[in-house]
Amino acid sequence: MLQVNHLYKSYKTGNTTYEVLKDVSFSIEEGEFVAVMGPSGSGKTTLLNCISCFIPHDKGEILLDGVNISNMKEEQIAKIRNEKLGFVFQDFMLLDGLNVFENVCVPKVIHQEPYRQMETKAEKLLKMFEISDIAGKFPAEISGGQKQRAAVARALMNNPLLILADEPTGNLDSRSSEAVIGAFLEAQKELNATTFMVTHDSFSASYCDRVIVMKDGTVYTELTNNGNHREFMEELLDVLRKMNGGE
Ligand SMILES: Nc1ncnc2c1ncn2[C@@H]1O[C@H](COP(=O)(O)OP(=O)(O)OP(=O)(O)O)[C@@H](O)[C@H]1O
């Protein structure tokens, strides 16, 4: 589904060039839920922004369902973002003037989809994420966990090939985080959704199939979940501790 091959990205500040991604390679299969973790400054957001086509990379390639989306033209990028990718952000990015139902429908409105079709799909997603009862409420009237579940529903409206989530539980307490991770897992189970999530939260990451750990702009290691999320969380915490120089 997603293949990242020998990706390099640097930022220029004045005369200085900072290499942030250095030969990053990995792949994600269809239907996988994968997290990327690592210390602050290790390049996680930069990696996500390159895959999202928000910023160009210097070298290497990014293949989405076999199509090379590296450094495409602006129009093509917009099409990929609208049709192939779904986004979930740390601060929800819901539109304050629209209710939950309308927010979830936004991607379909952009596509000018017939109302009845759009309504059926939105209702299905709201039900799946247990937010049907708040469909008529506005973002200011609902909890953070409910906002993020609405954002996950919105990301799924166009049946994207890949959902990109940037710290989706970063602003949530542990109960709400669990509900949001539950929404990603439900999307995986019911819709075979593929999700790539940047997170600092080992608890959330421990529900993923795989975790890619980054350090200094490279892939430090990849860990696979054996199905026991408690054991996986211990394993993750252990690797992060060791990487940070503990023991
Ligand atoms: N636009 C930019 N211009 C210059 N340097 C940047 C820019 N964006 C990020 N950086 C630098 O690139 C490095 C990697 O940043 P990035 O945000 O990708 O790391 P991260 O792993 O996501 O960190 P965090 O966990 O703190 O969000 C950092 O040293 C950062 O200061």
Task: Give the topology.
Blueprint: E1 2-13, E2 16-28, E3 33-37, H1 44-51, E4 59-64, E5 67-68, H2 74-83, E6 85-88, H3 100-110, H4 115-128, H5 144-156, E7 162-166, H6 174-191, E8 195-198, H7 202-205, E9 210-215, E10 218-224, H8 229-243
Parallel strand pairs: 3-8, 3-9, 6-7, 7-8
Antiparallel strand pairs: 1-2, 1-4, 4-5, 9-10
The protein binds adenosine-5'-triphosphate (ATP).
Provide a short characterization of the protein structure.
With 247 residues, this protein is α/β, with parallel strands linked by helices. It has one domain (30-39, 73-208, 217-243): P-loop containing nucleotide triphosphate hydrolases (Rossmann fold, 3-Layer(aba) Sandwich), CATH 3.40.50.300.
Keywords, separated by commas or semicolons:
247 residues; alpha/beta; Rossmann fold; 6-stranded mixed beta sheet; binds adenosine-5'-triphosphate
N→C terminal distance: 37 Å
| Number of helices in the DSSP assignment | 8
Strand order of the largest sheet: 6-7-8-3-9-10
Give the CATH class: Alpha Beta
Structural class by SSE content: alpha/beta
Domain ABC transporter: 2-241
Organism: Blautia celeris
Keywords: ATP-binding, Nucleotide-binding, Transport
Family: Belongs to the ABC transporter superfamily.
Please describe what this structure looks like.
- This protein has 247 residues and is an alpha/beta fold.
- Helix 3 packs parallel to helix 5.
- The mean pLDDT is 93.
- The chain has helices at residues 44-51, 74-83, 100-110, 115-128, 144-156, 174-191, 202-205, 229-243, and strands spanning 2-13, 16-28, 33-37, 59-64, 67-68, 85-88, 162-166, 195-198, 210-215, 218-224.
